[in-house]
Amino acid sequence: MRTVGGTLEDFERDLISNLYYQRGTTVESASGPDAYHTLAVTVRDRLVDRYARTAAAHYAANPRFVYYLSAEYLLGRQLRQNLLYTGTEPWLRPVAEDLGAPLEELEAYDVEPGLGNGGLGRLAACLLDSMATLDIPAVGYGIRYEFGIFKQAFRDGAQVERPDDWTFYGNPWEFPAPDDRQVVGFYGTTARSLDDPTGLRRQWTPGETVRGEPSHMLVPGFGTQTVNMIRLWRARASRESFDLSRFSAGQYKEAVEDIVRAENISKVLYPDDSTEQGRELRLKQQYFLVACSLRDIIRRYRLRNTGWDAFPAKVVVQLNDTHPVMAITELMRLLVDVYRVDWDLAWSITRRTFNYTCHTLLPEALETWPVALLERLLPRHLEIIYSINHFFLQEVAATYPGDVDKLRRLSIIEEGPERRVRMAHLAVVGSTAVNGVAELHTRLLTATTLRDFAELWPYKFHNVTNGVTPRRFIRLANPRLSALITDRLGDEGWLTDLERLERLGDAVDDPEFLARWREAKRQNKVDLARHVERSTGVVIDPEAMCDVMIKRFHEYKRQHLKLLHVITLFNRIRENPDLDVVPRTVLFGGKAAPGYHAMKLLIHLVNAVAEAVDTDPVVSRRLKVVLVPDYNVTKAQFIIPAADLSEQISLAGKEASGTGNMKLALNGAVTIGTLDGANIEIRDRVGAENFFLFGLDTAEAADLRHHYRPRAFYEQDPELRAAVDAIASGVFAKGDRALFAPVVDAMLGRDEYLALADYRSYVDCQEAVDEAWRDQDRWTRMSVLNSARSGFFSSDRTARDYCDLIWRVEPVPVPS
Ligand code: GPW
């Protein structure tokens, strides 16, 4: 086996050789993309040897594997990560010099694969990182979308979406594996299996087939030899799909019709965060992912095992929300129809194989599919769902005799004018374990959304609080603070044992440490200011408090509540130009789904308010508002290290967990937040005195809902009224009162997420924030303690929880 050398000289030699033999060029004539690509493959090569040894160790041990199925991954940029994970990071500068390419330019070519929408996709990436770091044998399966999450730009303040052509220059991080391609069917008919008296085994003859071609990216562990992989499927037409005779007849469009239809399956990520849309093509994507992945899982299983009895002992599949839940029916189909396993045994194997993670409480985010669509697209799977439901409801009827309403509530099929399949119900019925993603979330899930199931099978339900990888979100994102921490703690052990940060607690009495901490945060703000100025033209003051709200735009997350606070500050300063206010930079980042009109309008309003603030000479000296365009993992890595205040202001009971809250706390931002999702656990750990709490709790919010009149709050609170009236007046729309009227109407009409009810508590709490900020020593101590006490929120702990509670897998060390 060829292995790469370990010195800088080896690295430089390989670099020049790769440039010459792989790119076919020389240092003198290399372009920017040439230089980047060559650097990337040279770094990548340093992982290949570890990857091969990992595969060999896994083959020898024949261990139980975790297969993580997710429609989304937000991996972030790969170059810096892989430099860090191969120990070659210190060489970046000399190597860039060798290539004659400025570092910043090289990094700019390192596009992040935007194969996800938000938290759910980033959680998947953090878990893969942690599993590799913990030496857990694991494979992530996903879709290689040709276009990832859209690029966000603003035209006159309004969001415009552009396609994300992320592989335009080629992706140096992926290895195509054409030999492992699979064939997947859609549509068609089903028929009885003549030799099966039960009628449970049937034959499906698809009406269309598509090829799935895999490629993989390497997922290295930090400080260990393990390199796992993420395998991504791309849809291709079968070779016969090109219609040569039509092409020859000049019918160019028709000649490639089948190819286009097949390849559309992996064309684009649905940029729809948690609400449903896209219909047939989206369901096709979901089935394509699970059909390819399951065939690959079975292929891998059969490399070392025979028969089916051992399958659940060797294979554990984690379903990341309901998007891959068709895998349950697909495994049943493969076992029963193709491998001729008895239904009961197949069902027992299937249930023992799958586990399901739920990431929401919002009823509209719980996926359902019309029966009629399934009947056409996946006729055999619908039959299997009916059989699963039939046996399941028999069990329910035996447990609750005569309780028809229970049957209706639990059924996998939702009855009504349009019958639909409830994917979450299918997931719970077909899984061993079901988990929520934060304590409150799991509690509410079992008390409300999935209550009947929790009553039926209490032992199935678990909580696994989310986490974030400290490698990307502090070590890579925040090298200054990381160096300071390492200096204080003596070594880098905290990067894989994050609870060690606790020892920073003593440092709050060390004025020199506090000064260095503050200076690191200030430098981060200087860096951020440079990026912000470059991308928006807005100049921000690094001395001002950096107040950040970065997350998808969603009504329940309540960006509009933050905006009401901003407008209140604006009004106060205008009314009283001598007012002693704490200077703030309010930084928003986030995208709205292209079809989510209310949130696109709110984005427009944020930009309009930002402009009004910026053009007012009095206000702009103390307040800045910026909406950073095209928020993504890369931007997160710039923004988070500079943040002083973390806005986590969703209505209590709506945010399943949140993970940005963890990243920000870890980097020393202090949270202002509601008792929602993981905020509760963050507050418990960092201490109530280091967290700014406001607003209704879940129970109070539920009570208020019954008799809520947002207008009452509007009428009673002059500052609130002034803020809402300012939007209504058209001052942010050059006098156009109509433009933002829908925002005002939504607030005064239904105010679905009780923003007006929480306004006073929020604005007053912001005063307490100012108060704390004025005492910079106090603030810095709070900042240090937030970081010091965030160790629990490492995704290493999350992965370990999954291992202990759900997966029951053991690490397999990879020898060097
Ligand atoms: F609705 N989440 C997300 F549950 O980013 F499916 N996209 C989604 O489509 C859903 C959830 C879904 C997020 C949650 O909103 C967030 O609270 C959580 O921290 C994150 O998933 C990871 O669990």
Question: Tags for this entry?
Answer:
2 domains; alpha/beta; 10-stranded mixed beta sheet; 6-stranded parallel beta sheet; 34 helices; 816 residues; Rossmann fold; binds ligand GPW; globular
Quick structural gist:
Phosphorylase is an important allosteric enzyme in carbohydrate metabolism. Enzymes from different sources differ in their regulatory mechanisms and in their natural substrates. However, all known phosphorylases share catalytic and structural properties. Its cofactor is pyridoxal 5'-phosphate. By secondary structure, this protein is of the alpha/beta class.
Describe the structure.
Its cofactor is pyridoxal 5'-phosphate. It comes from Dactylosporangium roseum. It catalyses: [(1->4)-alpha-D-glucosyl](n) + phosphate = [(1->4)-alpha-D-glucosyl](n-1) + alpha-D-glucose 1-phosphate. InterPro entries: Glycg_phsphrylas, Glyco_trans_35, Pyridoxal_P_attach_site. Keywords: Carbohydrate metabolism, Glycosyltransferase, Pyridoxal phosphate, Transferase. The protein folds into two domains: 370 residues, Rossmann fold (3-Layer(aba) Sandwich); 244 residues, 3-Layer(aba) Sandwich (Rossmann fold). Helix 30 packs antiparallel against helix 31. By secondary structure, the chain is α/β, with parallel strands linked by helices. The protein contains 34 helices and 25 strands. The longest helix has 30 residues. The model has no long low-confidence stretch (mean pLDDT 96). It starts with 7 loop residues before the first helix and ends in a 9-residue tail after the last helix. The strands form six sheets. Strands 1, 4, 7, 8, 11, 12, 13, 14, 18 and 19 form a ten-stranded mixed sheet that branches. The structure holds ligand GPW. The site of ligand GPW has 19 residues, from helix 6. Ligand GPW binds next to helix 6.
